[in-house]
Write a structure and sequence with these properties.
Elements: E1 2-5, E2 10-12, E3 20-26, E4 29-34, E5 40-46, H1 53-61, E6 68-71, E7 75-81, H2 82-88, H3 92-118, H4 121-129, E8 135-136, H5 140-147, H6 151-163, E9 167-170, E10 173-176, H7 179-188
Antiparallel strand pairs: 1-7, 2-6, 3-7, 4-5, 4-6, 8-10, 9-10
Length: 193
């Protein structure tokens, strides 16, 4: 079954039953863990040619979803119904594919855990700003959402970055002035040269 879904649509949420195994044909789905407070931590993104391991996990374990999936852009999905998924798991090539996806995503999630547990937020913010060009059109809230933090803390850190000449802040934009300084901060946790 194919489905075309607009940007911003919630595909699944905590405690919802999983109806099938989705493949993303076009677009992107952001998968996040959400707290009761409304804060969320992005776990991973599912792009074209990929599938969601949380969906796989729910189908294999006969459990409800424990995260949220929202389309970031207009998305075309192909959904393999649960009964067909169960049948196909008996086929080695399909089973190998599903477990390969698990291994790949678990490595990504381990990296995320390492980032959150062992790197300070200023280092993570510096890393997030790098590699996206000199001028980023982004709000402080969007950066906070991406980092699983709150806007006030991200705004404070960005102001500190600006005070040290690393960035220039404007309305819904961040201009990178000193990429080498941001790289140093990201790697070493030090703003000063």
């Amino acid at each position: 079954m194919d489905a075309r879904v607009p940007a911003g649509a919630m595909l699944f949420d905590d405690r919802q039953a999983c109806e099938g195994f989705p493949f993303v044909v076009e677009g992107t789905v952001r998968v996040s863990k959400c707290a009761a407070s409304g804060r969320e931590l992005p776990l991973y993104r599912v792009g074209p040619g990929e599938t969601c391991i949380i969906s796989s996990s729910c189908l294999l374990g006969h459990e409800d979803y424990n995260a949220r999936g929202v389309t970031e852009s207009d998305t075309l999905l192909m959904l393999l119904p649960k009964a067909v998924f169960d049948e196909m798991m008996a086929e080695r090539p399909f089973r190998d594919f599903v477990f390969y996806l698990f291994a790949e995503r678990i490595a990504d999630l381990m990296q995320l855990i390492e980032e959150v547990a062992f790197r300070k937020l200023d280092q993570r913010l510096a890393a997030l700003l790098l590699g996206k060009g000199r001028l980023l059109h982004v709000t402080h809230q969007q950066l906070a959402d991406e980092l699983g933090s709150v806007r006030e803390i991200v705004s404070r850190l960005l102001k500190s970055f600006a005070d040290h000449g690393l960035v220039r802040l404007g309305r819904e934009q961040v201009e990178i002035l000193d990429p080498a300084g941001l790289r140093r901060l990201s790697a070493e946790g030090s703003i000063k040269a």
